[in-house]
## 1
Amino acid sequence: MSLTVENLSVAYRSRRGDITAVDSVSFRLADGEIMGLAGESGSGKSTIGNALIYMDPRMKLAGGKALLDGKELPLSDNDAMRKLRMTEVSLVPQYAMSALPPTRRIGKIIADLLKSHGIKDRDEVLSELLRRLELIGLKDEILRRYAFELSGGMRQRVTIIMSSLLNPSLLIADEVTSALDVSTQRAVGEMLIEFRDRGYIKSAIAITHDLSILAQIADSITIMYAGRLAEKASTAAITEAPLHPYTQALIASLPEVGVRHEDTTLTGIPGRPPSLVNPPSGCRFRERCPFAFEKCTETPPFAEIRPGHQVACWKVSQEHGGGARVTVPAGAIADSASTKGTGK
Amino acid sequence: MRRFLSRKLITYLIAFVIGVTVDWGIPRLIPGDPVQAYLSQFRLQPAGYDALYKTMSEAFGTNGSAWDQYMHYWQSILTWNMGVSIGNFPARVTTLIGQALPYTLALLIPAIVLSYILGNRLGAAAARRKGLDNSVLPLGYVFQAMPYPWLALIIPYLLAVVWHVFPLSGGYSNSLLPTWSWTFIGSLLTHWFLPFLTVFLVSLGGWAIGMRNLVIYELENDSSRYLRALGARERVIRRYAYRNASLPQLSGLALQLGVVVGGNIVTEIAFQYPGLGKLLYTAIGNKDYFLLQGIFIFIIIGVLIANFVIDLVFISIDPRTRLSMQGAPA
């Protein structure tokens, strides 16, 4: 196992008290696995990514732990974590367009990072760097350029190369494709796969709200909802046969090629995710879920329904655990639609 | 580079022509007649007055048409002949400026440069140390917000009148003649210190406050976050932040250095310091067209040169300006 996350809870400090953005999350990442982590804004997906590499002063570890290659990551110890960043855990940030410092050449920035990590044999890293630049079709003169001289796609690729230069075990790619056009998106996605195949990175978490890009690059997909995991399964299982009502609704809301939406209305999910300031008890999707029943006032376990397929849903575990089929209360959707506006 | 330089040069040339024209026009908007003002100092018989008025108006060229005066003015600038001061007749304008300039430069350049260097360091340090931020910075705000004329009264009152540590005013002791002796240099230094201190204190706070805010902003921005996520040492991140934050500060320094040649009127009046500011003030009082124009020309040239130098410095530290230098649309 490359990465094991156990009951990880992360909170943001605020004046109204701590807000638990990630609530008891557990998952595993196999060697060589690219895991897609999807969910809507505020679901906590980026918070998981940040917690695994850099807890900023507003964040705090509220419980749980993460093990990378069997060793526990010192998540709240900034100094200890600093040495592991880039070498063991690395990040391609959401803000790749503005991530590169503007007043230094790319080569100088990389040299400063290597110096920070006390790397003695810089020539070797440098020749590796040149090899990787060539691999993705960038000229080595890029190292003598400044960030503002590069196009958006080039900046994105440069940050991926920089972040993965020291062969980290885990690369967290946070919304790496969101700001790019579709063809560049594909190229960047393929770059991640190529880097994994060549062993530059051992495993990766691709955080995004874009399920279609995950379908292309991810081995498995984890769906988050309001700070908790809803479902984790292989990419095929999530896209073809999702079990969690939220995942189903999410997949159903994607437009399909060949379907004329004049004929079939493209539906969204009625309602809004609950506020995390004072989250409701039980299943957090309850209010919007057409299948909700009494049991849903208790928090559902993130249970393994089939090998490699975990779902946090009472209805699904009853159905697959031999329980009786749950009848859907009539008008559930209309009810949940009327709760609109209970969130922030 | 050549294209950049020639473009800049044309810009500066246009600025110079506009500056000179305004410079010529402004003193002439002051109500009253300078020759008349000068002659009124003496008790003259009406006949003698008329004769003198006629001669002097011709001598100073104040009787010609505006266009003639304007053309004459350009001619005198290009031949670097600024004429003779009316108020300090018959001293030449260039001589008067030459005498006052060293005092102004010696006072303001050290005050501005030292406060810039120290203020930036202080601000950058305050950005990451709470203790410093809560102690030194408020002091900076106080000095910044304090009306300067008041500070220029309080400090000399304490250090000169109450404690007699430094002389109260003047450029050097009245009992000495300007010679290159140690006594005279010592007198220069002690007279220099108080005006220097007041200017230094006021600008120190300003630089520190600006730098603190810029560094805090830079330390939180995306590129700092990225460096941090890749495990760069905090020292390295601060160095990058400081470099980025220096750019706006440097423009501020350029503006200040540019107007240095105009002197600091309030300081030089408060301390009776014989620099350009005091000279300018006296020239306004005397309606001394030629001296005023001479000083303004000086300021115009000074500002333009300072801006040009800073343009060149910017090119070397901010790569983004290099792009516009190559002629790409900025």
## 2
Amino acid sequence: MTVQTILKHSYRIAQKDLMELFRNRLGLVLLIVMPLFMMVMVGFIYPTNGTISDLQIGVVNEDAGLQGQFMSNQVFLPALQGINDQTHMLVMSNISSVDDLKDRVQRGNLEGGIVIPANFSESLMSGQQGTIIIVSDESNPQISATIRSALTGVFDAIGTQFAEQQLNTTNIAVVKPFNIQTQGVVSGNPSYFDFIAPGIMAMTVMMSVMTGLPVAISQEKEIGTMDGMMVAPVNRLSILLGKTFAQTARGLIQGAIILALAIGIFGVTIQGSILLVFALLLLGVFSFVGLGIVITSFTKDQETAQMLMMTLMFPMMFLSGVFFPIQQMPWYMQTISQFLPLTYASDALRKVMVLGAGVPQITNELIILVAFGIVMIAIALPVFRRMMTR
Amino acid sequence: MDTDNIIEVKNLTKTFGKFTAVDDISFEVKKGEIFGLLGPNGAGKSTTLRMLSTLSRPTKGTATIGGYDTVKHDMDVRKLIGIVSEKMIIYNRLTAKENLRFFGSLFNIPKDTLTKRIDDLLELVQLTKFKDAQVGTFSTGMRQRMNVVRALLNMPQVLFLDEPTLGLDPQSSVEIREFVRKLNQEQGTTVIITTHMMLDADLLCDRIAIVDHGKIIALDTSTNLKKIISGADTMIVKLEIANLTPDMTATIKALNCADAITQDNSTTLHVIVHGDEAFDSIIDAVRKKNGKITSMANLQPSLEDVFLHITGHEVRDSADQKIPMEHGPKRFGGGQRRVR
């Protein structure tokens, strides 16, 4: 049995599978509707940056001042107020203590807060950085991420202004006078949709192989047509390859639909190369094929395959940082997510699509995906062989 | 090896866990023969067929087809065989032609040859008119005809038929039987057929192996099998008693001369008896219980009677009992696994 024959047979099987798929009208409609639903849901339910205004922010000013000078009241807060008067992003109110602020955030009266510590003036006037703490509502990661990134931008602007003033008066200035203690979540344009579109693409395409393969194979076993292929002089590998090709094609079609919707409806832009995007999706498929085969070997009927798919898909969706940044998860979840190939695929895809990264910037992810794929296939093939020769 | 034998089976065994589906069976099939495996569901017929057609690996023993071992040379075996299984191997969303072209392409048949063969086969089963219609729109009989010609794409030397008439109406069953016989006569195709339908086996098969609990318990021509009963002093008595009671049945069953007994309906019994005194004993027994005999006849033995005589029980299952295997008697536990 030559490689050529194996490939020819797998091409035939893939062609047959796709023919069946395209004849299934309802299935075809769902193929388009499913990603559309997902896009619309996450796209509209989660707010994007532009829609946020009038955020309720509490300000705790504990600045003790230095020699009767209060840098907070004299410089920082007026500057902040000045910028906000133009953007109307914040509605600020004075809060007496940090505890009170946290309490109000917890109760939902405020969406976040700014704390100016006691040594703020002292630090600044002695030529050091003045610390500003941003308190955000961790239960609402999208809002808190928006607040953080917005405030950080504002503070940077004020800081530059302040440094220039100082330079004029004293000849000495700290270049970045404010030390802002926040954690940036998404760099670049922090639209939630930019964050989520690459993840959903990676997920849909990779899941199509992991879940589509077991369903496709167990379905043929169940209706009996698998026997028809098995009694023909066809290498078992051809059956597997053919099915994988068909499922990959289906996944890539869905991925392309998602991409088109993301660009067309939600204004997502691709900074990097679109070829690299599809190459990454294919690599993602490769890394998941082995897992798909293992699941195939263990599921005897279609129903089990479907249930197993739901069971695996759910945690995978959330743990791989498709919807929420991994950094917000507790450490043990972060550890699990490091073992999921989807994490790396969606990460790499995000870097390419949002940040315009090229191959050099995503080398680590590429290596991990290739390695994961090879290891899983090495495990899967013997398992599959055993299943087929029962 | 006897060159006349196209199939040689030696000590073939298949176990699923603790359950033995096929228990150390051996037989040969001659080239050009129609060979039947007859027995109830769960007897191990289909498992045997799956092992012969390389779909399942024997736990022990060997089988060769055309001299090729079904395990070591499975690819060579596959070129020689075709299977028609009870589950139709046909894609509903593809047209008749597309189905045949797909399966044909798996056999590396040159395109021109394949195109011609597909046309011929469709003509043969009178489906040419429907060649571009999706198979899902076909009737069951049409789909089964498709299923049969699909197995003939590679012009197999050995054709395996697993319950080919299951779920078909009598007319379609006749069509399939005629087709198989024609194929056997004109092409010399060796046919292995499993069935629990006595009629199929009786009408079609040159030789019949009666299978029960994974073992072959009798193997001969239909005529010779029937001689097991009509020979010696064994007879089949059909007895109609107007006021038949279970008590009466039990009394007859307990008679020395009665080998086996089945009840056809509320008034009719089938009794396999032996000895010169049998008729008298039965009449005496019935009269003693005040039974009123309305008819009594000495029947020609059928394969059903042979089966009953040899195994002591009926061919239990019928087609509609095929599905809920896991609720069936324990010894049929292998039925569910067999489906894989």
